[in-house]
Amino acid sequence: MKSSTKDEFYTITVIGGGLTGQLMVSLLLKSNNIDSNKICWINLNKKTFIDTRVSFLNTNNFFKLKNKFKYHFNDNDFLNIKKIQIHNENEKLPLSLEDKQGHGVIIQNDTLKKTFKFLKKNLKVFKSKVIKTKYDQYHRYLYLEDGTKIKTSLVISADGNSSALRDFAEIKYVSHNLNHTIISGYLHSKKFNNSIAKQVFLNDGFIGLLPISKNNNLVNFVWSLDNEVLKNNKSNFKYHDEIIQRLNFFFTKYNICFENQKAKTTNYDKLQIYSSNITFVNNPFSEKIALIGDAAHTIHPLAGQGFNLSIEDCFDLLKCIDKASSYGKDFGDISILNEYGNLRKKRNNLITLITTSIFYLFKKRTRKFNNIINLVSQNLNKIYGKKIFSIIARGY
Ligand SMILES: Cc1cc2nc3c(=O)[nH]c(=O)nc-3n(C[C@H](O)[C@H](O)[C@H](O)COP(=O)(O)OP(=O)(O)OC[C@H]3O[C@@H](n4cnc5c(N)ncnc54)[C@H](O)[C@@H]3O)c2cc1C
To answer: Which of 103, 18, 13 is nearest to 58 (CA)?
Structure first.
């Protein structure tokens, strides 16, 4: 740590250069209630970093980003998903959730980052890590590794799943390792319908399949694989070969096959690999600090809802900040933070409960239980009751 100390004051400090941090800063800059020179952003991410993942954004969030907050999306930037199909071992047919209005859109994370881009002219950006924090009655103080000290009325921390700020601010949480590895990458498939997203539940893991473009046959996969499979073989495990073998075996009866062609751009050859844990934070705030994004809730990616919850965190926190501004209240006032916590509780709890329950339901199933799941799913296909799943996927 360098010894020189620079003291800075900003009304709002956003921490985190991931999708959530960037969206939050961008929304604050769009708001008329706060001057851009009163905001600062702590962003450690390098410009060269490319996130090759894709996100499913539910209809509600996509509509708000586009129409309420005027983010511009080119028609070629996203794919509309009209049907979600849930496949299971030994199924007769998948559970098909159709939504004529569309469940949502598939969009590449790097395209989202470009869409949320803003002019940095009046915005102060710090590139150094937060290593300590303190607070008093009026402010929170952030100490950066390079010696900078920031005094601020409100810290908004989007510092991810292993949030250091959550620990520094002594915010209580429960974290649990699911013993799965998450692998994200791309495959080619000529017969994959590009308005359908699929979730496939296999015995040793779950695979999400998302088409990414109208013009090519690329399909993004999010593979959640039981660590038992990797136990003695992690360094030699041929992820592409193994997933293709599983998918082609499963989809022969549907006449769909997958292959790993060399892509034109190397980004599509790369895999992004994560450990899988869930984090539950009951009250995502403390004195003069609010958590948003994965720092406030980390869920299993099987339903593609993690960033959707993060978008909603940003919308709700902005609502609270705008309200504080109109009443002339301090942005870090505990009543404002409490309101933010209350607004987020229902959706965050519900989605964490649903995704974790689905994870364990399929992870622990026996052959007999699997047959029951398939029977229920067959019956669900025929009834109106399945609309509840579409409503959850759509976001309202
Ligand atoms: C394979 C995969 C597929 C997914 N698919 C979907 C999907 O289809 N739909 C969906 O809604 N969600 C999806 N998710 C979830 C979604 O990707 C995450 O919820 C989202 O990316 C979280 O973003 P974040 O900005 O909150 O956190 P992160 O991206 O983890 O960013 C954290 C940031 O904080 C910074 N930071 C950390 N510590 C410090 C510190 N001490 N000081 C300063 N900065 C710090 C880091 O440098 C980083 O920039 C998926 C997740 C995975 C793993």
So the answer is: 103
